[in-house]
Amino acid sequence: MSQKLNNVKRYPLVLMLEPKFRSNLKSPLCGKTDYPDAALDEYLSPERCFYALKECGAPVVAIAGGEPLLHDDMPEIVEGLIKRKKFVYLCTNGLLINRCIYDYIPSKYFYWSVELDGLQEDHDKIVDKQGAFEEAVSGIRYAKSRDFNVTVNCTLYLHQRTKSIIEFFNFLTNDLKVDGINISPSYPYERASDQDHFLSRENTKRIFRAIFLSKKFKKWKLNHTPFYLDFLAGNQSYYCKPWSNPTFNIFGWQKPCFHLNEGYYKTFQELMEKTLWDQYGTGSYEKCADCMTHCGYEGAAIEDMYERPFKALSKKLFGIKTRGPMLPEINLKDARPAEDVYDRLVESKMYELDLM
Ligand code: SF4
After folding, report:
1. Whose CA is nearest to atom 1 of ligand 1?
2. Residue 227 pLDDT > 90
3. What's the CA gap between 111 and 86, in Å, rounded?
């Protein structure tokens, strides 16, 4: 709100902090942990995390990765961020919650954000580990019993059935009683070994319309603006605002967003000023063609909400349109072709950090 009042055009809402890339899972659908071993072992110190936060000033920090609970200094990082009165979402696959929970204290500023992508069969298949669902659910139950806030982050893929997703959301709401559900269509990571189960924009809109048709829809605590949900259902046409969720990791400020690494800057100011933002987003860049994730589009929905508060309220009260024609899709014809930059970028950063 203060950024809007000060007429700031681009501002961060959520700092995506990646203090360590290593994970204890190896999902074929994950494109975030395909780094050389030396990079997977590298990590951000608490001081660098606090400095990144000071640079960008976002009100919310999502600690992602990799698996953040593998970072030895994670309790200190979380405590420091809370001390700075930031809302902290510790994004974990949930496998280590039971072991690590005693290092954390419940706070209104702190949320366990557990990645669960469906009921047991779906989730275990997606993360490629039998029993992962049970372990994560056990962690959620234990965290809830100790008065922690717990949200679930759910990414949807092509092979999941609508009926099963609806059952999953009912389970989160009625059985686990989680404090919020984040949903996102999958982003087609170029480094993921399985390229067959990501959602196209057309499939995303079809699936979300079917999910939102559920009679239980209003009972789910979906952690999103009504306009973002409306966008997922094909009723809003937004251009991505990737600067709303800037990403900081061992290589620096990642351009342009959490999903794409197309370059790095040393300072947040450089990221904001030097990134050619118009070159990214659906319709502008081939790698963005199928993206509808909240990383870039929730920021656009929030902007819209400030501009049309009554319309947003009516969406909240009367629900999302699930029938009838959708808005026409963005024209992809003029999108610039994908650039193959990953190997060159990672290699140069590895040299710079003396990790070769
Ligand atoms: S559309 Fe936006 S959030 Fe999605 S990959 Fe492109 S720049 Fe990133």
Report:
1. 281
2. yes
3. 11
Q: What is the pLDDT of residues 93-121, one digit of tens each?
A: 999 999 999 999 999 999 999 999 999 99
Q: What are phi and psi of 305, to 5 degrees?
A: -65, -40
Residue nearest to atom 3 of ligand 1 (CA): 296
Distances in Å between the Cα of 211 and the Cα atoms of 153, 204, 295, 301 are 16, 11, 21, 20
Residue 204, pLDDT above cutoff 90 = yes
Ligand 1: residue whose CA is nearest its atom 4: 291
d(CA 196, CA 11): 35
* CA–CA gap between residue 228 and residue 73 (Å, rounded): 34
Question: What's the CA-to-centroid distance between 239 and ligand 1, angstroms?
Answer: 9
| Inter-CA distances, 323 with 203, 208, 213, 265, Å | 15, 11, 9, 44
Ligand 1 centre to CA of 302 (Å) is 16
Model-level pTM?
0.95
Model pLDDT for residues 61-81, shown as the tens digit of each residue = 999 989 999 999 999 999 999
Q: What pLDDT score was predicted for residue 52?
A: 98
* Binding site membership of 188 for ligand 1 (Cβ less than 6 Å): no
Residue 292 near ligand 1, beta carbon < 6 Å = no
Domains of the chain by range and CATH?
2-352 (3.20.20.70)
Q: What is the DSSP letter of 271?
A: H
Of 26, 74, 13, which is closest to residue 191 (Cα–Cα)? Answer: 26
Q: Is 280 in the pocket of ligand 1 (CB under 6 A)?
A: yes
281 C-beta closer than 6 A to ligand 1: yes
- Can you tell me the distance from the alpha carbon of 258 to that of 162, in angstroms, rounded to the nearest whole number? 27
Nearest CA-CA partner of 266 in 186, 142, 199, 353: 353
For 150, list phi and psi in degrees, rounded to 5. -135, 125
Give the dihedral sign, CA 177/185/320/2.
positive
